[in-house]
Specification:
heterodimer, A: 512 residues, alpha/beta, 3 domains, ten-stranded mixed β-sheet, 11 strands, B: 89 residues, mainly alpha, rod-shaped, PGAP1-ab_dom-like (chain A), AB_hydrolase_fold (chain A), hydrolase activity, acting on ester bonds (chain A), GPI inositol-deacylase PGAP1-like alpha/beta domain-containing protein (chain A)
Chain lengths: 512, 89
């Protein structure tokens, strides 16, 4: 079964003294683990050496009191030329070698187990407090910039090299799983994905070669350039008239919640479960949910739950809309069908200008959430945005809006922004990595998936597991983001309305 | 320096075996005991200060369990030290 372990960047920092204490503690644990592991190895070798000494005792009369003093015809004299008979008159040492062998073996096993547990504890401490996260981010940034420069200067060799890595991943997958699984190819290029995307972005915009260094929004600039063309084609294919209507499920899909993990669970019910055919509530694709909470002072707070791309012919959550949402231009982002649909649904659900709003979205839903947080600040008070698997690093979300991003290491989609998310107190990123149950140091959370193959980790179940692991770690920043989210929708739950969007025709609605 | 097992002119292989084992086990037991002593101090040296929640509780609990397992490993290391010395006959 797949497990996910998380690392955390951003969120509030510990004090220098606190951080120093955790660094020292982690280093101490790793040092003790290393020493125990070395001792375990040494005891294992000692076991073999002592065991091999047992054969030499066959020449000791004291160790073989019942043996014949004559050497067995199959056994020659020992290296010094002594025979059993010759040793009878000598002085001896009584040794319980079988017991010594057993003790050595037990020590090797016990110390190896303890070393493994200590490493696991050190790993937990490091992940819980985001130790080394800055260094990892800096390394990642350097790799991203180098890959981007290479892709910008030598696009075809960069493409070929990526292909080589992808093929290597495919072969690895075939050896391990006995069949072709393209997800392995994707995984093998994880380290280069952000850099390649940035390279493509700067190629599209014809950015100067060295101008790309130090900037992170190449993809969004590229999306702005492509978006003009893609939107025109999309409008010919899908139309640009948006119809939003309220729908009613046969049972409650999104309910009252007070936690990010609860909201993620509802998002899963609304989106992923339906996409996978596991939903029986009668809701169709292109449907969002808007939950109302009444605060003690009589004002309303809203939570908007937005699923990801469904790619249906008449859905506002198609593939092309992702390009418009990723644009560096606010006007282009506002024109994206999915963003228009959410804003129209919010208005019709009763969200008034000045109301407090929080949004949670998966994939394209998360980009919509980020786009609204960036572009509708003059209309709503956007308190908190939660995204899962959404490339939103360059969306200009003001610092007053808290952002909790959950990304998977190898999902690709979250890397489409070509940059790492800002690591500031109000923007926290949980980054999940897949591991397997036979990994001894695995301390993660099991993914609620029925697939027995290595599958794409963009499914929301993986983000849920990553966030669950981050919560269990007890990270200070995660705790603060959880508390902020809870406070943002703190109030009496008034209910949830569901809104379905459909595309068709040639009409330009509002928010253009 | 003469070995306690090395009786001049009468060296049975068992004395050489004992020497080999002692040379191997004694320093190993010593260093292991020192390491285990340091592991025993971990709950104090690496306490989950200002860290709360499920993971912190589990961390504290597992660190305490590791420290509790130290005497058993120490006993084994001591036993190895005794066994490798053998008894002169």
């Amino acid at each position: 079964m797949p497990y996910v372990t998380s690392t955390i960047t951003g969120g509030s920092r510990y004090s220098v003294a606190e951080e120093q204490y955790f660094y020292v503690a982690a280093r101490t644990l790793v040092d003790r683990a290393d020493r125990l592991a070395a001792a375990a190895t040494a005891w294992g070798r000692a076991q073999i050496t002592v065991s091999s000494q047992q054969s030499r005792l066959q020449w000791c009369a004291a160790a073989n009191p019942s043996a014949s003093p004559l050497p067995s015809p199959n056994i020659a004299a020992d290296a010094s030329g002594q025979t059993l008979a010759a040793t009878a008159a000598m002085s001896h040492v009584s040794l319980d070698l079988p017991s010594l062998v057993s003790v050595c073996g037990r020590l090797a096993a016990d110390l190896r187990r303890d070393a493994s547990q200590l490493r696991s504890l050190a790993d937990k401490l490091i992940r819980a407090h985001g130790l080394y996260a800055d260094a990892e981010s800096a390394n990642r940034r350097v790799i991203t910039e180098l890959v981007e420069l290479f892709a910008r200067r030598h696009p075809l060799p960069a493409l070929a090299l990526t292909g080589v890595f992808a093929v290597g991943g495919l072969v690895y997958g075939m050896v391990n799983e006995g069949g072709i699984n393209v997800v392995h190819a994707l995984n093998a290029t994880t380290w280069a994905q952000e850099g390649l995307m940035s390279g493509v972005g700067s190629l599209v915009t014809k950015a100067p070669l060295l101008g790309a260094v130090g900037t992170t929004d190449e993809v969004n600039m590229g999306a702005a350039a492509i978006g003009h063309v893609s939107a025109t084609i999309k409008n010919l294919w899908q139309g640009d008239a948006l119809t939003v209507r309220q729908v009613t499920p046969s049972r409650e899909v999104v309910g009252s919640t007070s936690s990010i993990s609860g909201a993620l669970s509802d998002l899963h019910s609304l989106g992923t479960a339906r996409l996978r055919g596991e939903d029986d509530a009668g809701l169709e694709y292109g449907t969002i949910a808007i939950s109302q909470y009444r605060k003690d002072d009589g004002t309303d707070a809203w939570l908007v739950t937005i699923p990801g791309t469904d790619g249906k012919r008449d859905s506002p959550f198609g593939w092309e809309q992702n390009v418009e949402l990723m644009s560096a231009s606010a006007e282009q982002r506002k024109r994206a069908d999915s963003a228009r649909m959410v804003r129209e649904a919010m208005e019709r659900a009763g969200v008034r200008p000045g109301d407090h709003v929080s949004l949670i979205g998966h994939s394209q839903g998360g980009i919509v959430a980020a786009a609204i947080a960036a572009d509708a600040q003059d209309t709503y008070v956007v308190d908190h945005v939660v995204t899962a698997g959404s490339p939103i690093a360059n969306h200009p979300i003001p610092e007053r809006t808290w952002v909790t991003s959950i990304e998977m290491e190898d999902e690709l989609v979250a890397a489409l922004d070509g940059a790492a998310n800002p690591a500031i107190p109000t923007w926290l990123t949980v980054r999940g990595s897949l591991t397997t149950s036979d990994d001894e140091s695995a301390n993660g959370v099991e993914v609620a998936t029925t697939s027995d193959r290595y599958e794409i980790t963009h499914w929301l179940e993986y983000h849920q597991a990553a966030y669950e692991d981050a919560t269990r770690l007890g990270n200070k920043g995660v705790g603060e983001h959880e508390e902020h989210f809870r406070h943002s929708i703190d109030g009496t739950y008034m209910g949830t309305t569901y809104w379905q969007g459909r595309m068709g025709g040639r009409e330009r609605p509002a928010y253009e | 320096m003469p070995s306690p097992f090395n009786v001049a002119g009468a060296a049975c292989p068992c004395t050489s075996v004992a020497e080999t084992c002692a040379a191997l086990i004694m320093p190993l037991a010593e260093s292991s005991l020192r390491t285990l002593q340091d592991v025993r101090a971990l709950p104090r040296d690496c306490a989950a200060r200002d860290w709360t929640g499920q993971a912190a509780d589990l961390y504290t609990e597992q660190l305490a369990q590791l420290a509790k397992a130290v005497p058993s490993a120490e006993h084994l290391a001591e036993r190895a030290r005794v066994l490798c010395q053998g008894n002169e006959m």
